[in-house]
Hints:
Number of helices: 20
Largest sheet: 6 strands, mixed
CATH class of the largest domain: Alpha Beta
Organism: Panicum hallii
Family: Belongs to the 'GDSL' lipolytic enzyme family.
Protein name: SGNH hydrolase-type esterase domain-containing protein
GO molecular function, one term: hydrolase activity, acting on ester bonds
CATH superfamily of the largest domain: SGNH hydrolase
Keywords: Glycoprotein, Hydrolase, Membrane, Signal, Transmembrane, Transmembrane helix
Radius of gyration: 26 Å
Number of domains: 2
Oligomer: single chain
Amino acid sequence: xxxxxxxxxxxxxxxxxxxxxxxxxxxxxxxxxxxxxxxxxxxxxxxxxxxxxxxxxxxxxxxxxxxxxxxxxxxxxxxxxxxxxxxxxxxxxxxxxxxxxxxxxxxxxxxxxxxxxxxxxxxxxxxxxxxxxxxxxxxxxxxxxxxxxxxxxxxxxxxxxxxxxxxxxxxxxxxxxxxxxxxxxxxxxxxxxxxxxxxxxxxxxxxxxxxxxxxxxxxxxxxxxxxxxxxxxxxxxxxxxxxxxxxxxxxxxxxxxxxxxxxxxxxxxxxxxxxxxxxxxxxxxxxxxxxxxxxxxxxxxxxxxxxxxxxxxxxxxxxxxxxxxxxxxxxxxxxxxxxxxxxxxxxxxxxxxxxxxxxxxxxxxxxxxxxxxxxxxxxxxxxxxxxxxxxxxxxxxxxxxxxxxxxxxxxxxxxxxxxxxxxxxxxxxxxxxxxxxxxxxxxxxxxxxxxxxxxxxxxxxxxxxxxxxxxxxxxxxxxxxx
Length: 482
């Protein structure tokens, strides 16, 4: 593991304000069964055993099968032979097709120089096949070449960060629709950010806090489920995520200055697209207040988002893609809360007061971004009206093939909302919708893969953007911009 991966693997304790936690996007996993929080000791024990055995063998000691290999000198030759073979195989694997075929023939076994007539044809066919594979690989690489994204946010764009930092072992049926196994996303599949990456021809963003399997060559995802824009409420609030970005950038540039490789270079940071989707948990945290107080608590949240963008700009960011909040009043989690009557519901069954707070939040955020366009020179700052996109899913659900727009796919209690705040989707007795059946809400808070796909297509279209531009245009012009 390189130094950057080790740095990203550092896991800090997570503090979350208890009231915000109760209403936050983390709520659906808080009551999950014990095994989802259990840290597997089997993998650790296995790794320690393997490490111990290898160390013992390389030192000429140990017992069992490793000891029967022979004395240290013989072990040395065996290991070096294996390394040499691996180098040859790796070279052939990534060598262009014709060259690979030629190399294969040049290292043929002794006495095989006069190969059978069919052998040359087979080698040529293999070479052509390998060349075709290389061509396809280059096409995919070219499409996503130079694409760099840095994302900041909460569970709407978390691709596994909260699972890594909290040590939560998220269990099935999470991930069932696309990945076919849990990935740390709070969904049955992809989040909107994943669809954005796919549209740009690059791989899904790796979480900054994920210690294994991360690939930061196309950027980093700093989003952590449960995070807020306001500092001091959660450990990984927006200001901390920006701190993490600055740290990552400094480490990359320091490594390059020392002549070492780094996943992102100076040009990558300059031309990257900086995406942000946060504020939902801040709104959740004030929903217990009277309406006027809820509205009064929004400006400080907007100020924090504005400050984060200014800090990123000071550190070289020039292209910003900022998502507003969705229609939180249409979430099953909110609708399942006790109420005296349905007078507070709108024509589509959503809680009007909560949605009004969301619309006010978006209005204030859009105004703040207008101000930043005047002060942050040589910058592109785009606001996306996520409320309009997500509310449309409910209001016109039949157009999208959705029959039950306010009901949870994976929850408890059945109609009308199938949501129980005391139980999570990951408990053994959940009421689970059929695979392939279209729902908006996965667990009462987060969207399904199907719903996120619909939302992402609208996000990418540019029809809901201010100014009206497509996301791809910001990326495709990255290399030509100052």
